Every structure is written in structure tokens, then in C-alpha cells.
## 1
Amino acid sequence: MDSRIEIAKGDITKIDADAIVNAANSSLLGGGGVDGAIHRAAGPGLLDECRRLDGCQTGEAKITKGYRLKARHVIHTVGPIYRHGQDNAGLLRSCYLRSLELAASNGLKSIAFPAISTGVYGYPVEEAARVALEAVNDFLGNDDTLERVVMVSFDDRNLKALQDASRGV
Ligand code: ADP
């Protein structure tokens, strides 16, 4: 695994990085889970900017400022709602890749991800951890702008899934 990838446990809203990633919904107008936590911590300026973005499609990403967060930017991506018969892994991988592309094209050096889609969107945690780490590792293989990518777990199950997955990447 690329040495720039770090696996951590905690609250992503507290992380000091050039960007934190929000597991948003397609309206970009806020929600529960990590989305709600990021909007609460960032303050109302974030929602004002999000209102001007006209939503975001599943697997895509959009960037805003970080407002009251320690992080300078928020990259909003929309994970897939896990469904049988859909290319869940392709869409989830796309969230990570599009977010990393946005970070790199904006000259950012550090970015932190939550476990996209593993909350109310129902993506199996172990499978999601493998998709996430593979996507980040593949991207970094062709990138020399990013210096640090933090995979942030809110709970022990996600943390263990990432640690296990890191042995196979
Ligand atoms: P989704 O709709 O993409 O499933 P959720 O917000 O419901 O998004 O959950 C995504 C993941 O984010 C879950 O694993 C959840 O435990 C985690 N999470 C929730 N709050 C935070 C937080 N403050 N920091 C980091 N991760 C969080």
C-alpha cells in the first residue's frame, strides 16, 4: 500500500487537512450522518455555497470552501445506495477517484475520507473498505501532488475492515 495512505479512527470534522470529503446526498443540501456533522461544524456558509452547486450525481464530486472547519475545503461526493444488480463498486470507486482528482487539480496536498456509503446507504463495510483502499492506492500510483490521504473510520468495525483490507493492497 502507498505510504501516503493513513488509516485513522475519529471524527472527520476535527481533521486538519486541505480537504475533508463529505459523503453527501445528491441534493448537496445536507442530511444525517457525516453530512450533518460536517454542516454543523462548518456553519451556514457551507450550505449557502452548496445551494449554488445544483446538486451532484452519484459517483461525482464537487468542491467548496471549508468555512469554520479546520479543513480548508470540503469535497462533496455522492456514494451509491447499495443495490443488488447495480455496479455498486464502480460507483463507489468513482467517488474516491473523482474526489482525488478534484483535490489534485486544485493543488491540495492532504485529504481525508470517511467510509462513503457504509452508513444509511447500506454498503457492506468490508467490501467498501477494499474498494476504497484500492481506488486510493491506484490513484496515488499515478499522482505525485498529494502527500497524505487519511481514511477516517468513525467506528471499530470500519477501522478493522480498513486495516484488514490494507494487507491485501
Ligand atoms: P452514507 O449515506 O454515504 O452511507 P453516512 O453518513 O450515513 O453516509 O455514513 C458514512 C460513514 O460515515 C459511516 O461509516 C458513519 O459511521 C461515518 N460517520 C458518521 N459521522 C462521522 C464523522 N463525524 N466522522 C467520520 N465518519 C463519520
## 2
Amino acid sequence: ALFESIKTDALPTPTPTALTQDGHAIHLGANIASTAELKSLSNIHWHQIDLLRTELLFLGQSVLPDAARQQTTYQTFARAMHPEAITYRLFDFGSDKQLGKSEEANPALGWRGIRSGMRDPKLYQEQLTALLNVAQNAPIKLLLPMVNQREELIWFLELLEPLLTQFKLPRPQLGIMVETPACAWNLANMADLIDFISIGSNDLNQYLFGADRLDSQLMTLYPPLNLGLLSQLKQITTVAKQHKLPIGLCGELGGDIKALPILLGLGINRLSMPVPQLPHICDAITKFELSKCRSLLEQALKCHTNQELDNLVSEFLQTHS
Ligand code: PEP
Ligand code: MG
């Protein structure tokens, strides 16, 4: 019923791509975590979900629905975005996204993302069953949260392969969130097993600085765009380019105008962000030249303080608004 209410054939064909002044295409997708957000996406006629936070769809429920009921939920999103592939992030329960009450002393450092899947394989098995059922009629991409090292990817592939055989489906595009420094440093060693990366700047910043992402006061010490993160992003994008991996970013930074020219300069050409940011970021991109963003990045990498970096970017934005 929801599908009927949000999708009509009368909507214009959306173009979730923005062109820089010098003609480079930047793909823009949405971060979605509810049917309400799906509706707001449809309202602006945008047809791209590059991060579906699947765990948040079920967070309010005391028990996780079985595969059949999960499938019904995913189908709603798949139908609304058809024929575009949705990027389904596999469950990232734990840390700030607890299904029940956490018994852990440090949930952010505990059982979350793919680790919870490895501890309780039924979690991902059921979810994959639901998603592969969806994949019979709609294109899907899979995105794994909190991957740190190759062993975790191998565990996942061993779980996925027999299911693909059972469903007689080819392997969907598979990506990993790059959201820990370990993942960044191990990226070269995982590149042959994946099709794309999506940088999770929220967690990457949290784990880079050992600073709780939910503590806004603490976060004032480490502004969203800071030199430590910039240096890590430079390393990630360099490795990804060496291995010809498409590079996306889906943390809050993807919707941050201030970070935008730097992200483009780094060669990130797929940004996923909260729905309200999409029109603004789309508009801003058309005012930039990629070549100038690259020069800005070179200057940014020479800054010594976050304030210097901030001033540099502010000046750039003033001349490109
Ligand atoms: C991130 O960590 O940047 C991210 C996009 O994932 P989430 O915010 O859902 O943890
Ligand atoms: Mg994350």
C-alpha cells in the first residue's frame, strides 16, 4: 500500500547525477532508514539509495522479524526505487544501534556490524535469504558494516556462496563500509574480494580519534572536516584508485557543503547523504570545477591546524557560491 502511495508513473525521470563545471559526473544517493524517509525521497523525485540502514528499520521491535517478514519490508523500498539498485547495508546492530539492551561495558567497541553476524550467523543468513528473494525481481547491492580485515570478508563469502547457488543468482555487487582505521589500512588486502567501497565518516572519525560520535561536545574538538580524517581519507582513496575500486562516501560528511570540494578533490564521485541535503549538494557541485577541487586538496594537505583548513575551504566556497 505504501508503494502505491509514493510511486506514480507521472513522476519525471530522476537524474541522481550532478555535473561539475568541467563536466565530471558525481553520483548522489540518499541515506535511508525508514519508510518516512523513503517518502521524502520520492517527494523530491530522487531515485537513488546508496545506504539503506537496514538495522534501523527494525530497531523498535523486540524481536527481529523472520526472513519472510523482512522481505516484505525490503520489497517496499525495492519497488519504489525500481529499476535502480538499492545498496542494502547488512545489519549493523550494536554500539549506537542496539536491538535490545546492551550488556557491554563499551558497546561502540563491542559486538557490532559484521562481528555480530559472525557470532550469530543466523542473523545474516536470514537477512540474506530475504534480500536474495528481493533480488529475484530487483537489482540489489550489498554493503558490509564494520569490516576490519580479510578474514571477515572470507567468512561472509562462505556464508553467501551456498545461498547464491540455492537461489541460482549471480553474486550481487558487494562493497564494504570503510569506517575503522584498520579497514583503511587493510584495504589493499581486501580489494580483490569487493566491487566498491563506501566510506563511513561518522564511525571513521569516532574510531580515528577514540571519541564518542554521540557526544556533541567532544565532537567540537574534532570538527567534521579535520586534518587527521583528511589524511586518512587521502590514504583510503589512494589505495582504492590503485585497485580501481569505485569510491563512495555515506557518512554525514557527504552532505556537508564545507567538505564537498575536498571530497571531490579526493576523487570520491559517489556521495550518499540525508535526503534534505540532496538538492543543496547537487546545486553546489554544478558551481565547482574538479580541477580546482584537486588544487584545493593539495593546499589542504599542507595545512597545520584545523582552523587553517577551515579558512582555506571557506575562502574557496566564497568564490564558488
Ligand atoms: C558511518 O559510520 O559514517 C555510517 C554511514 O554508518 P552509520 O552512521 O549508520 O554508523
Ligand atoms: Mg557506521
## 3
Amino acid sequence: RRVEAIGNQLSGSSIPAIHKVAPSGPRVAGKVVIVTGANSVLGIGRASAHQFAEHGARAVYLCDYDDSNLEAHKREINSLWPKVDVHTRKFDAADEKAVKEVVDDALARYGRLDVFFANAGIVGPHAVFTDIDADDFMNVLRVNSLSVFLAAKHAAPAMQKTSADKPKPSGSIIATASVAGLRSNAGSTPYSASKAAVVSMAQTVAYQLAGTGVRVNALCPGLIETGMTAVVFDAARARGTDGKIGQLNPLKRAGHADEIARVALFLGSDESSYVNGQAWAVDGGLSAGHPYVR
Ligand code: NAD
């Protein structure tokens, strides 16, 4: 009888339809996306540009102050997903004029900006804090934190103008922070400070954008094998100790750029329409508890 009742419920017309927040089909269909820090071959930026292109973006901007690989990345995306417009920009993510220019270009060409993935970053000096120069400290803050402030400052108003085909704008600003910005760690003081600033900024900006339809989230990777960390992995391989990397992680390994890119895709898509002002740790569980050794 219970089985029958459930069957009746399922086929009955009294069951309200699920309120679908995102259309079926390509996950970022028609969206115009800016990705910074996109040059690195192993990097999170390039992997994310692939995710956005694969899942239906109309245009992807590949931006980086090092443009040595940008044209090659563009050709690759063009060959894999020919319908996507790819633009490359040599640009310093902490230069306000450059940030404004790329946002203005998106608005001029497409009349919209949907996703700004502020991902460019550098790692600070790995020295005891007493040995770090003030200039080096400020440089890390400039690249890692000021860049996110500028991205939000210029992307948010542009996203609010993105209302041609939508009742409300649905912009998403994603800033790459780090688990180093969430917890203390033995790494670099300027780096941790710069990433904590990104987390706090994402939360504050999310509140200040209340009611505008623009969401802001910080993405906090754990240890990922990219251009930034290649030196760690290469040295460990040379020593034969690479098997030890990630041993304290519950998943017993470091992460891949694509594993961060897939979360960036989710945060940039309307599927995450109720995710706002959050710091998303994507670290295999490392920051969930106290690492232990068995
Ligand atoms: P990566 O070095 O492979 O890529 C970083 C990219 O940023 C490079 O292409 C670099 O040229 C670019 N860049 C640096 N300064 C710039 C500037 N001023 N303007 C424009 N572009 C600039 O490293 P990644 O790991 O892919 O780094 C992406 C983001 O992820 C960074 O913000 C980094 O701090 C963060 N992150 C990385 C890890 C990790 O383990 N790899 C962990 C946590 C957070």
C-alpha cells in the first residue's frame, strides 16, 4: 500500500514542480568570462578557461602579465570549442587601467560581463617573517589582494549592466584565495596575509552588492600541482620523496588544476545561484581537521 501511495504521488499533478534555477544544457551558456592568471601551462587559470569554454561560454578572455603562452592557449581552445570567442590580454591584474579596459572591452563587444575569475597570483618569499622586506610584503599584497579589489570594483558595475536578456543580472565574481588565507600555516607570511584579505574582501563585497544580483565567492585551493608549486614537486621528485607530498591530506595526495577549475565553473554558473560570500576550501579535506600521522 505504501508503494502504491508513493506511486500515486509521483504521477499525481498535485506535486509542485521543482524551481529550476539554471537552464538544462550547457552550464555557462552564452556567458562572457574573464580569467586572469591564464598563461601558466599547468595553472588553474588555463584549466578554468577550458571548463568555461567546454560548457558553453560565449567568450573567454585570457589575461596575464606573462603572455608567452596566451596565443597557444587561444588556438587550443579555438580548435576544441570553435564557437567560443577567445581574447588574449597582456595585463597586470593589479593595474586599475588594465582591469577597467578588459571589462570595458567585454561590455563594448558583448554588452555583458557574467564572470570575472580573479585568479592571478604570486607566492611570497618563503622566509621567516623577520627576514622579509616591507617592499616584498607589499608586492605580494599588490598582486594577490589589490587585484581582487580592482576586479570587483570594475566587474560588479559591468555585471549590473548585464540585464539585456535577463530579468536580473546574474554576475559572479570568483577570487582565488587559498587555504593559507583560512588557517595558519608554516609558509609565507605575506602570502597568507594577502589571501586572508581576499577571503575577507569577498565576504564584505558580497554584502555590499546585496540586491544587485552579483555574487562574490573566494575559492581556496589546497596544495595543487601548478606552475606556482612546480618547484616543490620537481625538487621532491629529484629527491625521490614525491610520494610523501600530500601524506597529511585525508585524500593522501595533492590536487590537480582541473579539480579547482571545476569548482570555478560551478561558482561561475547559475547552478550556484544561492552561493554567495563564501570561502570554498578545495583541498581534499586538509583544512577540515588536525592532520595526524599514523
Ligand atoms: P601559476 O603560477 O601556475 O599561475 C599563476 C598565473 O598568474 C601565472 O600565469 C602568472 O603569470 C600570473 N600572474 C602573476 N602575477 C600576475 C599579475 N600581476 N598580473 C597578471 N597575471 C599574473 O599558479 P596557480 O597555482 O595556477 O595560481 C593560481 C592562483 O591559485 C593564485 O592566486 C594562487 O595564489 C592560487 N593558489 C594556488 C595554490 C597551489 O597550490 N597551486 C594553492 C592555493 C592558492
## 4
Amino acid sequence: MSEGISQPDQPETRQGEGRDLFSKFDDLIQMREGLLATGQEDPFNLVMEKVLSPTRAICNGRDTILLGTYNYMGMTFDADVIAAGKQALEDFGSGTTGSRVLNGTYRGHRECEDALKAFYAMDHAMVFSTGYQANLGIISTIAGKGDYIVLDIDSHASIWDGCKLGDAEVVPFRHNDIAAMDKRLGRIPEGAGKLVILEGVYSMLGDIAPLAEMVAVAKKHGAMVLVDEAHSMGFIGEHGRGVAEAQGVLDQVDFVIGTFSKSVGTVGGFCVSNHPKFEIMRLVCRPYVFTASLPPSVVATAATSIAKLMAGSDKRAHLWENSQRLHQGLTALGFELGTKEPQSAIVAVIMPDLARGAAMWEALLKEGLYVNLARPPATPANMTLLRCSLCAEHSAEEVETILGMFERAGKAVGII
Ligand code: PMP
């Protein structure tokens, strides 16, 4: 041991016994036990015993309206989507048992990638087993040691994990701050590889990025741009291609990342790109190569759903109405929301603290409404949030019912 270097305090251990590697979770375990000891229903242990439709389920024994599922376009019970999944299960079996680069590419995977290329009008599409893996794989493979990643501080966990896996220099900037992003890019050494990572919709507060300005700044500095459109695909933009489409900069975005676990209504992730060398990713991207591919039934449901989303403009319009109705109603009731105006299908209700947030979550569940409870470290600025994600299948009357539930629960818990 070198002199002058202090050692961190070690808990007492008996000889021959190592430190319990779980001791790092003690604070979290205590906080959780403290909360549950008050009789609070566990917000992270909800069970859906039966799912009745995209907007209703039996949750913990109660008939419940779903307002926290990211099932934005309600595709999970679409008759064509279900029929495609059943047929693929019959024709191709339950799973591929292999990697995409060995025995795991079936006709359905190709059809799914063709559907994505058509949806985005782009040259290349690569399907991953989840959206998490799409970010992990693409980011870590294109930005490695000696490269620079400039990213929004509120980026999703899968983006941060992709940065860590790739070992590039990571330079975060304040959320949606165009000038800060410009400054960080200006300090990167001449000739270095640069990747800017942004999200279309930020899922915690439901706010969108000023992509038109940010993409222009990135291009001024010669950076490549990756945009995660997980929460906008299928809904935002004329063709549902996302915030980059809505703001007219999709053609300048080098990589769009997305997921099948939200508007598409199944599971899986993807990247689309016009980069002429993109196909090499299939051989060098470890989270693509070293894992089994999606089951045939899943890619069949995804391909069918994506094709139907291309013609979803009526549903998109209704979802905007739902988002506006909920946002206006909650504002009128006196709740504090994540954005002044609705910017997406996510409406985040800011809670004063975790205890009251959890109490409000439970009061809503007892009313028959499920929303997401979000707390640090997932949330920005240590906020506790009740996140509502609307569905195109919610009716206007259902949104009014939801507002009544918020009013009663909010008064009972003393938040309004
Ligand atoms: N990116 C963002 C912005 C997300 O919110 C999520 C999931 N919540 C993902 C990526 C990961 O998607 P998946 O569920 O397909 O892993």
C-alpha cells in the first residue's frame, strides 16, 4: 500500500470472508422497506392478471384503465397484427435459437427490416432484440476510443450504457441547451470523430428536443447525429417518423434508433440509416451478433404493425386530442405538469416528494387507473413523477373519467 493514500472504510468482515457485494444496495433496501412498512402498495410489483384491450386490464385484482403503458397507437390487439403473429408461430415455430449472423435470420426478420426501410424511406434497417440493445450496439460500435460523444444529460439509460461500452470520451450538456451543446462541440480536438446523441421526445417529462437547431449546430461542427425516436415513432410527424420529421431535419440525421415496445406494440429495437457503409454493422456490432434474434411471431407482428402505422394519420390526430384534453384538464385541476403545453403523448405530473407520489399512485390505482411512478435516479432533478402515457384507443369520455379519478385522488392525498 503506498503512503499517503487513504483507504475507504471497510465494514467488519471475518477472516476468510469477503465483503458482501450487496452492501451497496443497503440504502435502497432500507428506503423501500420503510415505504412498504407504511402499508403502501408496492408501485414496482404490479401484476396484470388479464389484459382486456390496449387501454384496460385487471391489475392486482381490479378493473383498471391503463394510462402508463407507452402503447401509444394501441396496436397490441390489432386483429391483423395478432393474425400475423399466430401464423408465424404456426409456420416458423416458437423461436430461432440463434444469432442473426448464424441461424437466426428468417424471412420475417428481412420483412421487418423492409417494413422499416419503407416506413422511414431510408436505405438500411437493422433489427435488434430490444431498443436497449439497439442503442447499446450502435453507439458502442460507431464511437470508440479516441472518438467523442456529445449528448444531452437527460439521455436514456441505454444511451449512457452504450457510451460506456464503447469507451469514447463522453461530453454531456444541459438538457435541450443549444448553446451549451455548441460550446462542447467547439472544444473537441480537430480531426476527432464526433457523434451527437439526442432524443426526439424525452420520456420523463414528455418534452421534445429542438432538433432543427441542434442538428444544424452538430452539422456545423462536422458531427454525425443519432436521434432516439422511441417515444415519437408512429405518432409525431406527418408519417409518424418522429420529431426529426416534424421539424424537417430527418434527411440530416445519420442514425435513427427506435423500439417496437411502444407504438409498434411488441418487443424489439432498430436502427435505420442512409450511411453507405451501414451494412458492415451486422458483422461488428456485438449486441447484434452475440445474442439470439427475435422470435418469428414477434417480427411478424412488428412488420404488420409498422405497415399499418404508415396509414395511421386519423389515429395520430385523435391521440393529439387526447394528449391536449388530459393536459388541459390536469392543469385546470391545479396539478403541476412537466411541460406548459402538451408536446407528446406523455403527460408528466410532478409530485412534491416520493412518499406523496407513492400515495397518489396507490390512490389512483384504487380509483381504477394505472400510471407510472418514476423517481430518481431515472428522473431529472430528483423529481418524483406520475407519468401518464396516452393511447389512440382512449376515448374522449375515458379521458374525462381519468380526470375525475385524478381530482378525487389528488384531493384525498392533499396534492391539490
Ligand atoms: N430509448 C428510450 C428513449 C426509451 O425510453 C427506451 C425504453 N423505455 C428505450 C430506448 C429502450 O427500448 P426497449 O424497451 O425496446 O428496450
